[in-house]
Recover the amino acids of this structure.
């Protein structure tokens, strides 16, 4: 016992000097945190996770439902989106588009979307060898864990309290990281404004109490819009009455665009 | 106080002031108010102008036509699907008139036959279907009906009828294969129509020795497909053959 009691003095001479190692590290940690907080670099609420809690309490989280079996591939959604959101007319610049899947008897899967489906689709070359064929509307999935938001170096793309993923066009530096990061190919680079663009869920329409333009014009009601987590709205009903899947669930991006009757070949 | 501590203190103070000044210049106003972004951007985006007014706006002035459409097969088709974005028209009804597409090319965007479309959706072949006649001649876009109101089998079995209409069996009346007693119409579940039960039935057209037009595909009806019944591999309302 005597040896054990004497050991600290021998191994930690600093203990005798009034400042032991534990106290020194604690003071250093307080100082290293205190200076940035005092300078306003790191805000205390962020450190304590208070903002994350505020997000979970949000009243509205928007989402979209798409019934693949109802889509007739007319491309009105893609056209309406271009009209509504001032998207260049050239192909490849689309916030939402319609893909045609053709699954052939030899197992080959082909996907095409000429001009986003706006002008219709050319006839299938070899209809005889087709096992299944259908249309799938695509758009930004407004992920809860959005890779595009994580990679933005300046905070120009963000998730609002309502769950919409938006781009601050005045603040975007046009580096294009987010275009690369999106696993759904939903982002594109505006050749005129030189900023990243994407679907906004027609945020300006939501602000006026209207549904997104693509939902407004869908002639077969293949698209549903509403709030996730509230029972009395079209999306909630859609989620209750259908078997629901999301695209690329293995990436854990937690999309808020929900698909019903989705074929397993859809990527 | 030791001299080096004073110097270090001054250096830190200068660095801190420079840092704060640079940060003040670089970080935009409202950045960080709601999260790691400019809070003002949300208001900017929310203030973008509308192009599509929404069908509720149309109904305010065009009630009769909206009610007519609301009771029709186009009940779910919003006005601006065909008439285009109309927010400008809502703002200035007199000077801005939305277009009304009357050419034959427009309706087939939805109603032209496409193998990828859901089979029950009404579709036509735009080349063969009354060429040169505008669709509006026979179909009112605000209350579209087939020129002949579906009666008999099609009234209830619309999806099968639509599918059969684009298949090789398009010209065959339902009664070629089914016998439907009149009572089936009044008591559809109690009195069921008949279906073929044996391979020989299909053989009346498709057997090698059948008396039927020569373009109809033929098989050796007694051996083809071994023990399976014809309709276990070929869907009679949309038959396919490799």
């Amino acid at each position: 016992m005597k040896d054990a009691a004497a050991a600290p003095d021998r191994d930690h001479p600093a203990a005798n000097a009034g400042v032991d190692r534990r106290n020194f590290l604690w003071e250093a940690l307080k100082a290293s945190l205190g200076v940035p907080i005092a300078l306003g670099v790191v805000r205390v609420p962020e450190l304590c996770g208070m903002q994350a809690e505020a997000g979970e309490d949000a009243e509205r989280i928007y989402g979209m439902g798409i019934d693949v079996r109802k889509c007739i591939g007319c491309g009105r959604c893609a056209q309406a989106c271009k009209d509504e959101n001032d998207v260049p007319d050239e192909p490849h610049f689309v916030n939402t588009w319609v893909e045609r899947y053709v699954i052939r008897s030899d197992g080959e899967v082909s996907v095409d979307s000429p001009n986003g489906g706006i002008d219709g689709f050319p006839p299938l070359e070899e209809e005889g060898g087709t096992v299944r064929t259908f249309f799938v509307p695509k758009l930004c999935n407004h992920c809860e864990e959005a890779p595009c938001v994580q990679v933005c170096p300046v905070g120009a793309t963000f998730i609002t309290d309502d769950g919409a993923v938006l781009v601050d066009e005045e603040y975007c530096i046009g580096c294009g990281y987010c275009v690369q990061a999106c696993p759904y190919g939903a982002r594109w680079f505006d050749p005129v404004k030189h900023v990243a663009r994407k679907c906004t869920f027609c945020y300006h329409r939501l602000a006026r109490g209207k549904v997104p333009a693509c939902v407004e014009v869908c002639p077969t009601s293949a698209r549903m819009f509403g709030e996730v987590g509230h029972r009395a709205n079209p999306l909630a009903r859609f989620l209750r009455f259908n078997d629901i899947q999301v695209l690329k669930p293995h990436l854990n991006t937690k999309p808020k665009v929900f698909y019903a009757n989705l074929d397993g070949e859809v990527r | 106080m030791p001299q080096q501590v004073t110097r270090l203190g001054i250096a830190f103070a200068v660095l801190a002031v420079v840092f704060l000044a640079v940060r003040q210049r670089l970080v935009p106003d409202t950045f960080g108010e709601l999260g790691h972004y400019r809070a003002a951007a949300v208001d900017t985006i929310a203030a973008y102008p509308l192009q599509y007014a929404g069908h509720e706006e149309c109904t305010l002035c065009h009630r009769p036509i909206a009610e007519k459409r609301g009771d029709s097969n186009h009940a779910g088709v919003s006005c601006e699907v065909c008439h285009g974005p109309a927010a400008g028209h809502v703002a200035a009804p007199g000077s801005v008139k939305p277009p009304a597409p009357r050419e034959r090319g427009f309706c087939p965007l939805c109603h032209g036959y496409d193998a990828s479309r859901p089979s029950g959706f009404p579709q036509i072949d735009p080349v063969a279907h009354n060429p040169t006649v505008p669709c509006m001649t026979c179909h009112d876009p605000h209350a579209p009906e087939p020129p002949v109101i579906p009666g008999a089998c099609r009234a209830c079995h619309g999806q099968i009828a639509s599918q059969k209409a684009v298949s090789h069996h398009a010209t065959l009346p339902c009664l070629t294969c089914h016998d439907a007693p009149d009572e089936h119409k009044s008591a559809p579940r109690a009195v069921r129509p008949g279906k073929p039960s044996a391979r020989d039935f299909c053989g009346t057209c498709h057997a090698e020795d059948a008396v039927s037009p020569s373009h109809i595909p033929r098989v050796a009806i007694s051996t083809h497909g071994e023990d399976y019944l014809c309709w276990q591999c070929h869907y009679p309302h949309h038959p396919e053959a490799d």
Remarks:
- Chain A touches chain B through 58 residues (CB under 8 Å).
- The two ends of chain A are 69 Å apart (CA to CA).
- Chain A is about 30% helix and 20% strand.
- The longest strand of chain A covers residues 130-139.
